[in-house]
Each structure stands twice: as structure tokens, then as C-alpha cells.
Amino acid sequence: MSRRATGPDAPGADRLPGLAAPGGELDRLVEDGARTVGAGAVWAVGDAGGALGGGGHGALGQGPYARLRPGPDTLYDLASLTKVVALWPCAGVLRQSGRLPLDEPLGAWWPPAAGHPAGAVTVRQLLAHTAGMLPYTRFERLYGRDPAAIRAGVLAAPSHRPPGAAVEYTDRAAVLLTYLVEDLGGAPLDRLAEQWAWRPLGMADTRYGPLGAALAARTAPTEYEQGAGAHLRGVVHDPSARLLGGVSGNAGAFSTARDLARFLIALLAPPPGLPWGGAWIEESLREQTGGLAPARGLSWLYAPGTGPAEGTFVHYGFTGTGFWVSRRLGRWALLLTNKVHYDRDIQRLTELRNAFRRAVFG
Which of 26, 136, 258, 309 could cross-link to 72 by cystine, CB 3.0-4.6 Å? Predict the structure, then answer.
């Protein structure tokens, strides 16, 4: 297997195995950080050849979960990492098969968008969060609970800004793109992601919920749900995805550190025949926002504190998940927590994420 970007010319490549060793700098950093953040954490780093190290620290939760420890087979609610792990590769399959134009307004070629504000935006703008869509969802309040009414409402919603005017992250972009990908792919997103992304990479634990009892038993609990009278566990935390039946491009997928490592390795060394490998990865992991800030690729964000010259991309999930990849350096990293199990104050988690990123990528 090629290790082009992890040879002696890659900055810091010689330090990475030592950083990732048991009891090494990264292990100590995450152990201390998990204590400060107040949530257990799983981490791993590696390159195109595989994982170089990883570990788990802290407790899985409070109360009955306090005696459980997170590990590489602990399932996490990925929240917005779903945009990258499920929706983005499916868009890549459609793009590389010639079915998904990136730069033609949707209304010119996708009939459901014609005559609606959504018809003025492009797929590239949806993926780069420059489509100008409303920055909030509020689906139940605005459209009710019927999935067809929600779809109609998303298509007909007024623009928040002119397309291409600003970078503004919104779940609506992923929801709209879900409808488009499902229409073109001829199946629900969970089936497409399984067929096109997860199964080809051997990601046996990755799936949409709700999870069965056996899988839920090794899933990190998220936030306390008043209606259920318990912490959510194996049921998607994101209310919009839950309203849509648990399967959406904005959130809803569950995965493990072990599976996510397989996914990140594939970004550096795509297996032969991967239908979203090669050109789609290369196009996505470069600046796509035309100089607007914050700079983004397609679905991916340049890591805070870095820019296009560094080439380090990241995506976070609201529940406390996150992962990074740099094709320039030939390395990847992941850090998974269930922070919302305790509270929604993310300042200490942000500090841990940034320190972790600096240690791995510089």
C-alpha cells in the first residue's frame, strides 16, 4: 500500500508513532482532557496504512453508565458527522457516475425544485454551505410532522441570503441534499450509504437507528429526553432527524472508532473500485468557498486555526464527536465523546479538540 504522504518528507511523520503510543502524549492529553470536559472519550490516529494508536478514557456516562468505559467498539451518535459518513460519499457516487451536476441550479434539472427558492441553488453550494438557506430547521413548528409536508416546506422555504454570498452552516442544506440523493439513487439514504460506503469499507457497526437492544447496550447515551424519561441511547439525538424517522443526511448515523478509522483510511488510500474514491475525495478536500470565510471544502471544514495552505479538514458532531484528515500530511485522527449526556457547554471540549488537532497535525 502506498504511503506517499507519510514518508520522511511529511512534517512530523517521524513523531506520530511516538505520540500515538500507549501512555504517550496523545493518550495523556485525552485522558486529562476527558477529565476536564467531564465526558468519557475515545481517540485514534493513523495514516494510509492503518491506525497507529488509540485509547479510551473516563466513564461512558453518569448514573448506571458510570461503571462502563468507552472503547473502539462503543457506538456513538455521530450527529453531524453523518453529513460526511453517509451523505457525502453517496453524493460522490452520483457525481462520479454523471448523475449529479455540481454547478447547475437545481431547478434546471431536478423537477421537484423547479419554481421554488431551492431551485436557484447548486449542489456545490449545498455541500459548501453557501446556498443561502435558512440557518435553522424548526421543522415541526413550521411544517408539522408529516414527512411529505416537511419535504414540501424545505423546497419552498424562502432564501436567507443570495446563493454564494456567504458561508453559513445549516442542516437544511443536508436535508435538501438527502431528498435529491434519494431521488437520484432510487432508495432511502440508509440503504444507499450501506451499499455505497459502509459495506465496501467493512464498516459493520455503522448504521442508522433506532438501534436494537444488543447494539444499544454498547452505545454511548446522549441527552436526557423528558418525553422518554431517560437518556437517549440508540435513538438519534437530533430532533430534525428524529422527526424524519431517524434517517437523514444531517444526522442519524451511529458508528464506532473502529469503523470510522476504516473510513478515514479510505480517504488517504481509497480501495480499488470504491465508487466515490479518487477524484471525488480530491475535489472535496480543497477550498470550495471562493475566498469566503470560514473556508470549506465539500462537506468538510478547514480545521479552526488552520487554512487552505495547511490542508487539514475537520467535521464535528453536536453530540461531542469529531474527526480530522490531511491528505498533505497523510494522516487522520478521531476524537469521540458524548458531551451532551452531561450538558451543552462545549468550551472545554473545543479546547480539547484544538489541542488534540495541534498535537497530531501541527
Answer: 258
